[in-house]
Amino acid sequence: MTTRAYSLGGGFKRPSVLPGFGLTLGFAVAYLSIIVLLPLSALVLRPATLGLSGFLDVLFDSRVLAALRLSFGAAFIAALVNAFFGLIVAWILVRYDFPLKRVVDALVDLPFALPTAVAGIALATIYAPNGWVGRLFDPLGIQIAFTPLGVLVALIFIGLPFVVRSLQPVLQDLDKEVEEAAVSLGANRRQTFRLVILPAIMPALLTGFALALARAVGEYGSVIFIAGNMPMVSEIAPLLIVIKLEQFDYAGAAAIGVIMLALSFLILLVINLVQRWSRRHEEH
Amino acid sequence: MTITAEGIYKSFNGFPALRGVNLAASRGEFVALLGPSGSGKTTLLRILAGLEFADSGRLLFNGEDVAAQGAGERNVGFVFQHYALFKHMTVAENVSFGMRVKPRDKRPSKAVIDSQVNELLRLVQLDRLGDRYPSQLSGGQRQRVALARALAIQPGVLLLDEPFGALDAKVRKELRRWLRRLHDDMQLTSLFVTHDQEEALELADRIAVMNDGRIEQIGTPADVYHHPATAFVYEFLGNANRLRCRIDRGRAMVGPLILPAPEHLELRDAAGVAFVRPHDLIIGDARAGGLEARVRQIFVAGPAIRVELALLADGEMLEAEVPHGSPAGELIAPNKLVTLTMAKIRAFPDAVAA
Questions:
Q1: Is A175 in Cβ contact with B97 (below 8 Å)?
Q2: Which ipTM value was assigned to this complex?
Q3: Hey, which residues 34-73 in chain B have their CB within 8 Å of chain A?
Q4: Cα(B253)–Cα(B233) distance, rounded to whole angstroms?
Q5: Which residue, of A265, B34, B208, B283, has the fewest CB within 10 Å?
Q6: What residues contact B341, with CB distance under 8 A and at least 6 apart?
Q7: List of domains in chain A
């Protein structure tokens, strides 16, 4: 007869009703290593050939700094714009019934599906000074295409679905009685939204914001057609990477890649922490 | 606050939920709206709260027409069946919500709000739990938070939608007594919705029994229990056996039995139903005369022995209750033939019977 001893508390593996922990953990780690970690570590190792001073030279090159500022700045503003208007779109789609609602709902996904180059060319065409929309702004002295403003437009375009699709299920599940409770306690519409609805959807809104931001930081295809790509003005960091590659400066390209990776990781980490804080009442 | 509802009609997408409801509650009264699901009781409560609007009819609070007022203007405390607490707020924040959303000129100072919250939390016996989130509380505690939150706006009337529906039996009973004391101490006017007749009978000053969008009867618990106006009320307020009968000049004939039905002196040979409560059904020896029945099941656990019987005539199932240790207890055994007589019945002619 054999006896099996379970170590209590100290063991890594505990008896559980969910089987397959070892197998699934092993698979998850192996899969993530091959798909995510391996390419990223290659990316991080490459600039090592530059040495620290070479790496810092790339980082503090004014053209690189300008490109990073544009990429992250425009992505941040675009994500903010998307968070605001995406919330309105999601709200309308969930709360109200109107003709062609299904069609409008499907339209939201188009920026997902469209090849980014097609989107970029289309946007560049209508926002150009002689395009449908650009023509309206041209007399006001505002040029959209081929300026940083054009970059922003493209990033707003590709980021919208992330916010809408993150919010929709949460708005759908929002308890109607909670709103009724707020109203019967004397809250007006604004107070009900600000004090009751917004905190409830905040985690989802942050998720949508983070996804839109991450997508916008890495966006390449749609932006390069509308940006004009003037160094120091409307040149995004991913484009600069491609330019460096074309000049066979692989280590320099990888160095910019590493910086973007680090910044993105940091931003997503902060958003994650904020999100955790906004869900603090659920953590029990 | 006195509440008067007159001729309230309400339909949802063409389906009538309320068909002309009249209800009045006077100051300090505790009124139960009792009925099965779908009888319109929650709809009526929500119309009183201003969360739903009637298609027609008048609604008066203290004689003033409030039909056009929104929920926030009516100064009504509403307690939802599933509490509807604000999950992202602590207990104290939940309770103070109604005070914090007041217009700036009417909003009490923070110190006043804090002291009132503490007082309310003490009242609902949740002091020291003010910092917790609703997810950290038990069902009964959440229900009391919901109540404190509703009371914080010093409502003229307290409306409770199935307030004990989601709680287990023991907690429900405690909370029920406690709520009744609270109602009396605070001199509230309260209406609550329930489908549990025991709850309504124990808690309410008056009960409005609702069925199919109408109020079938309003009265004190004793009234509706002992003098049910309709067959529906009789059946809903307690276990009842239903037997076909003929009613003639103040007597009801159930099979070979002739029983007094003094409410129906004027009826001549009308078809109807006779209701008999399980404890009024008397089991006798097979030769004793009466309705012949066969014992099917015996349940001895509980305050009395419950016996299920099938009538020989038509196979109809009846339920009887026999006190432990009574002579009738000796007679019953599975499959045994017995006879039944009735201590008391209540007969309704078919026109009135549901």
A1: no
A2: 0.83
A3: 49-51, 70-72
A4: 22
A5: A265
A6: B257, B282, B284, B288, B289, B290, B291
A7: 52-283 (1.10.3720.10)
